[in-house]
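Progress note, project year one: complex with magnesium ion.
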Amino acid sequence: MAWRPFGWLTSRFSHDIGIDLGTANTLVAVRGRGIVIDEPSVVAIDRTNRSVLAIGAEAKTMVGRTPAHIVAVRPLRDGVISDFEVTERMLHYFIHAAHTRSGLGLRGPRVMVGLPSGATEVEKRAVFDATRNAGAREVHLIEEPMAAAIGAGLPTFDARGSIIVDVGGGTTEVAVCAMGGIVVSTSIRVAGDEIDQAIMTYARQVHNMQIGEATAEQIKLEGASAFPLERERTVNFRGRDLTSSLPKTIEVSTVELRDAIAPAVAAVVDAVRKTLEITPAELVSDMMTQGVALAGGGALLPGLDRRISQETRFPAYVAESPLTCVVRGCTEALTALEALGRVGSQTAPARRR
Ligand code: ADP
Ligand code: MG
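Model obtained:
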């Protein structure tokens, strides 16, 4: 082990935790140790007694495979908290797991949680309380697109404007940031999940075939795209024939797959275009040179960057490690708080009474 003359200092800092509470994935990073949790935001529940059976990756494998009384819930699916109790238990579990896995001391961590920008005051309060109850000494909340922009390395504290597009599972968030704040933003409930749904609908309507959600996502990862590919190919669809109920496998070309998901992709592109349209003119010129940064898992859809460039006439690029931008932005924001003299300690939303 390295000799660290300022060990007390680093150990103090290591109590800083960033949490990306995503619609599809929850990530937890500990300052000085990196990402310690990266798991699906899924909770498996026994409906008969509402007990939690599994959380995270284990719960995700249960989706669509469990007996009827066991349900796999994604409490943040649409970017809003559909089930406070389940969200709380999930957060609690992940914070504890992060604590144990990174071998942190007993002192409660300082936590920055990234929330979808559409979160209501009640939802913010719920997340705040849940994080507090999980043992956090200090809790701060940040809007996800802001965290994504920081994590993507955009000059968010500059007077120059920058634009981030975060395509997640349930929501796509577009935000223009400048001077440490969000100037304009758009949030739509069309993202990765909607693309999966489009693939399921296509299989049903065009090939009279039923495929599961997990299969649809797998097909997307294998062959979906937003812009013509250099080499188009075919992808296998494995499911069940709707008429005979027998297993069936078909081959679908990537061209056809692209057509199937076109409406969802168009909605994402439209959200970017509309946000650019309402952006103050002075900021637009900065953004023309810097370009549109893409974050979130959906940013990895091949050709999405080219498609956005083509339709908005702004250069677009995929940020480095797009799936981890938010969580890295959260921990960085804690550092920024320090630099600002802890002004952020009032980030607790007003208590509703
Ligand atoms: P959230 O922040 O909402 O939790 P993420 O940023 O973790 O969402 O992104 C999850 C979404 O990204 C899922 O819909 C997943 O299918 C999609 N995704 C992940 N990798 C890829 C990829 N290579 N191509 C297309 N979509 C992807
Ligand atoms: Mg996200």
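The chain is about 40% helix and 25% strand.
The CA atoms of residues 161 and 284 lie 7 Å apart.
No further modelling is planned for this target in the current period.
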